[in-house]
Write a structure and sequence with these properties.
alpha/beta; about 375 residues; 3-stranded mixed sheet; 12 strands; 6-stranded mixed sheet
Length: about 375
């Protein structure tokens, strides 16, 4: 599995510039609305120093990091849920992602047009959030209108599901019609699972990404402070990045050049490397590793996964025919240097179907299909 994030925001906030930096792909960037027509998709490696250490120890033929898929979705405008701009075409793209990265313009530049005529990050946030809520409202109202019919069915499974969904949908109609996202509605994890098939946009985790100019990389301006206060108030992640600088960093051909440039800017790493880490934490994702002479690889899994589920990430046959897992931890191999010494130290274990996998576990699965 891989993390899938949709990059959204108003036109001309810097989405395509940021996308171009994280993927080193030529996403079109232009100083006018709707220059992005279809969603650009890019796969980005997750920075993980543990992979470097494992590579030193095992000398594999190749190293495969965990990845994040970023989808650059065209700029939304007020009225998008009703078809303004390019409307629902883009809202449909958002429904397929795991999390939303909402790029908010927090820089002043009279040479770059703002769709509303002035830079006002809180107004921008409200515009996007209302449009997403209204798009979800349409979906919820359609399902709620169909509930009376479903309650008459003889199919017990469908009937039970309809009874469970009805009160949840009624609450959502009330909150969404007021522009309140579903994630801010009083919905339990069990209720969220009951309406999972609706794929509501506003149930997804949201991260506000402040796009700043180079003068405010290490200090917050008033725009950034406003967004940070909003994030604290709404219990949502806020992160700052300079899209222009990240684009410059992506143009350097060697790690040494990138490191030197970042050092000159007073930075230890790119904002985009930090962004992937934040997105992982936000979604409760972890990493386990498989190691060997041929390959050292990082695998993404959800917190709470058991050994068979993690095996299934590699291949469904691994999960179907799961027998047991050979397990030790990254910290063990760093300490003892070889698998043989890990075994001698008693750190090598055989785990069964109920084992809950931990972040940093190194695993080898035994299965029979």
């Amino acid at each position: 599995m891989s993390l899938n994030c949709g990059i959204v925001g108003l036109p001309n906030v810097g989405k395509s510039t940021i996308f171009q930096a994280i993927t080193s792909a030529p996403a079109e960037a232009a100083n006018y609305p709707f220059c992005t027509i279809e969603p650009n998709v890019g796969i980005v490696a997750v920075t993980d120093e543990r992979l470097d250490k494992l590579s030193e120890l095992f000398h594999p033929q190749r190293v495969l990091p965990a990845v994040v898929e970023f989808v650059d979705i065209a700029g939304l405008v007020k009225g998008a849920s009703k078809g303004e701009g390019l409307g629902n075409q883009f809202l449909g793209h958002i429904r397929s992602v795991d999390a939303i990265v909402h790029v908010v313009r927090c820089f002043d530049d009279h040479n770059i047009i703002h769709v509303n005529g002035k830079v006002d990050p809180l107004n921008d946030i409200e515009t996007i959030n209302i449009e997403l809520a209204l798009a979800d409202l349409e979906v919820v109202e359609k399902r709620l209108a169909n509930i009376p019919k479903l309650l008459k069915t003889q199919n017990k499974e469908i009937l039970t599901k309809a009874k469970v969904q009805a009160p949840i949908l009624e609450r959502l109609v009330k909150s969404l019609s007021e522009g309140i996202p579903a994630r801010k509605t009083d919905i339990s994890p069990e209720e969220a699972l009951a309406i999972k098939d609706l794929n509501l946009i506003t149930l997804k985790k949201m991260l506000y990404l402040c796009n700043v100019d180079e003068a405010h990389i290490n200090v917050d301006n008033d725009h950034i402070k406003q967004v940070r206060e909003y994030g604290v108030k709404n219990d949502e992640e806020v992160f700052k990045i300079c899209g222009k600088l990240e684009a410059e960093v992506s143009n350097f051909s060697t790690p040494e050049e990138r490191k030197q440039f970042l050092s000159e800017m007073g930075l230890s790493t790119t904002g985009l490397a930090q962004l992937t880490t934040i997105a992982y934490r936000m979604l409760g994702l972890m990493t386990y590793f498989t190691v060997g002479e041929k390959e050292v690889r990082a695998w993404t899994f959800e917190r709470g996964y058991k050994a068979p589920e993690c095996a299934g990430i590699i291949h469904t046959d691994f999960q179907k025919g799961f027998i047991r897992a050979e397990v030790y931890h990254y910290d063990d191999i760093v300490q003892y240097k070889t698998e043989a010494k890990v075994k001698e130290a008693g750190k090598f274990r055989l785990e069964g179907k109920e084992y809950v996998v931990k972040d940093g576990d190194i695993m080898h699965f035994r299965f029979n299909v």
